[in-house]
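Weekly structure sync, notes
Attendees: PL (lead), two postdocs, one rotation student
Agenda item 3: pending single-chain targets
PL asked that the sequence for the first pending target be pasted directly into the notes so everyone works from the same version. It is reproduced below exactly as submitted, 292 residues in total.
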Amino acid sequence: MVSLIKRLYHKGWWQWQLFKSASVRKRMRREILNDLAVARRSPEEEEVFAFLQKNPLTVFPYPFAALYRPSDVKVYADKSNGLKFVWHKQKRLYFQRGWGDDRIKRAYTALCREQHKDSPHCYTDARFAVSAESILADIGSAEGIFALEQVEGCQHIYLFEPDPGWIEALNATFSPWKEKITLVNRFVSDVNDGDRITLDTYFAGREVNFIKADVEGAERFLLKGAQAVIRRPQLHRIAIAAYHRPDDGSVLWQQLESAGFKPRYTHGFMVFGGFGRPERPYLRRGVILAEK
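Predicted structure, written out during the meeting:
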């Protein structure tokens, strides 16, 4: 399992490999609709039910997903470093060396859908935001889009990204803010060995008060290795992905509550079938927002 998580974590962001199969998409959509048809639906489930009755299956079964299309994305080349980038909210967001335009367009489209204000995958909302006093740990930063949106409005950002392919791109993206960025090329887990490190080890003697974590199914191990850090009074917010494993929601919720946090889910559901063979439940909560 550790080797699987490390392979997925290296991708930096999941691209829903299972959705490449039209037959799998159709079957999952049919099963979701059948389940919801006989269920006593909550208002949030009713939204998904109404959408899927009229639309094909998509990761985010909501109208906002249609606002973003790969064909609308413009990719630019930086002659100074040979990397390609897109403009994201008036800032350059670089991608890995060797990525073609089509791959970048698809990736950026997926990222914009993830972080739309109505997305269940969004790490912030009106009541849960990064501030000028925030010292942010962005764990599983990948291309760094979340940190890029926060960099001018916070005190400092620690970027944890184990994939060496992203390091060059991250250095290029955050070159205008070098003094506010610390880049850590390590996996974050519950052990310290080789390329893995715990948050308790890394932040011994360092401050952090806001954690964002999306580590492809290793979130529970990250929290296990952060028992001292997450109990610090000054650490007041954690946004953590809760959809990779079927029981992530309940497991992570319990871990956060036991550390004194009050967790809540972002609004709505994502469609996620697991890694490889589809695994129920297909409708999963996206992110837990927890604060003290």
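Discussion points:
- Confidence is low (pLDDT under 50) at residues 1-16.
- The radius of gyration is 19 Å.
Action: rotation student to compare against the earlier draft before next sync.
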